[in-house]
Amino acid sequence: MDEKPLYVDIRSLLDGTMPEPPEPQLGRRTDGHCLVYAGQVNLIFGDPESGKTWLCLACAVEALQAGRRVLIIDLDHNGPAATVLRLLALGAPTEALRDPSRFRYCEPEDRLELRQVVDDCVVWRPAVAIVDSIGELLPLYGASSNSSDDFTMAHSNVLKPLAKAGAAVLAVDHLAKGADSRAAGPGGTAAKRRAIGGVSLRVKVKQPFTPGHGGSATLLVNKDRHGGLRAHCPVGDREPVAGTFKLLAFTEGVLEWQIYPPADGERNDDENAPAEDVAAIAELDPPPTTVEDARERLRWQKQRTANAMRTWRNQQGGNAA
């Protein structure tokens, strides 16, 4: 096997013979565009019962139906019975779930067992690797969710090797508690966001998920390193709408699901400031020049101020400084 060169071939880059940037390949919307990247770590985060795990399992079913391999690392201890029942309800082929060469599920009890799973799967090369959840992964390594070094260590030992083996890694995580922190993304260190090589999706419940009745969730692009998903989303929002994940009613024992694209011009409701906040910005004299300027004068939280400033500027037609 040829060794990896130490330096990038810039001549090929300039000649246009370098590979094109990757495109999302999993989590197919009804318009044909996909949500998450193969060979990358993708983060799926949101509040409890927002549909994060349902979305990840739907992606697993998509891969299994296409004859591809799926790994589930269940650190949240959802349990094999509950997980398999969900997969079957979503339409996973029974023969695929029976076949360990196509589907593998594990509940590692410690980091040694987890490391064995990762080493095995680097050889097995699953197309999809679900890690549920980051909140349980870090304690397994005696790591703190607020430490960049601790997260980087866990990422290097588990998530990165799976991605390098070609898997679309779907790492499930929870939202932070503070308002400004929640606006930024998942709880804990900012190293989580930096480590994302694919897409980071915020999952926000739209219609609660209830047994036998389905539910729906809005999907928002928190980060897209390569821009392949963001290019097919409406513009204008910091976190644009990537689509809607919907579980439909059961049909002959199968819970139908779809990922719908956003409507033309659909906006992220969380980024639309209320009229009274926009009016408060407009009344400042002199007009604010930055979010921090407005925040200090109004004594608001940062995210509230940012939303109001963005809406105010949009209403000014982009003419405000």
Quick structural summary:
By secondary structure, the chain is an alpha/beta fold.
Protein model, in words:
This protein is α/β, with parallel strands linked by helices and 321 residues long. The chain folds into two domains: 22-262, P-loop containing nucleotide triphosphate hydrolases (Rossmann fold, 3-Layer(aba) Sandwich), CATH 3.40.50.300; 271-315, no CATH class. Helix content is 35%, strand content 23%. It has twelve helices and eleven strands. It has helices at residues 10-15, 52-65, 80-89, 94-98, 111-124, 134-140, 148-164, 179-184, 191-194, 275-282, 291-298, 302-315; strands at residues 26-28, 34-36, 41-46, 70-74, 103-106, 128-132, 168-174, 199-210, 214-224, 241-251, 254-260. The strands form two sheets. The protein has a nine-stranded mixed β-sheet with strand order 5-4-6-7-3-8-9-10-11, sandwiched between helices. Strands 1-2 form a two-stranded antiparallel sheet. The model has no long low-confidence stretch (mean pLDDT 90).
